[in-house]
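Hi support team,

I'm filing this because I wasn't sure whether my run with calcium ion finished correctly. The job status page said complete, but I'd like someone to confirm that the output block is well-formed before I use it downstream. Pasting the exact inputs I used:
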Amino acid sequence: MDTYMMLQFKCHDNRTCVPLSYKCDGDQDCDDNSDENPEFGCPLPQCDSSEILCANGRCIRSSFFCDGFDDCLDSSDEPYHCGEFRNHHFLFDH
Ligand SMILES: [Ca+2]
Ligand SMILES: [Ca+2]
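And here is everything the job wrote out:
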């Protein structure tokens, strides 16, 4: 059991364990991306110029910022000040 735990990285959601070698390898293996989260010791990823960096280390397309969907999975692409824009957006969309 101890050996098993040592070789596994426990995702922040406490539901998933991934091999320790998957931590900070640049691929999202935890559902919540915590295996790539800079808060857990990973270096900040390099986002493409067309992308923005989420607080949890994900890269999302810059057009997904304030689009009403939580693409970062930590809502950092949907800060509260998106609200007015979003309400406006929905008025004309629906
Ligand atoms: Ca990974
Ligand atoms: Ca979004």
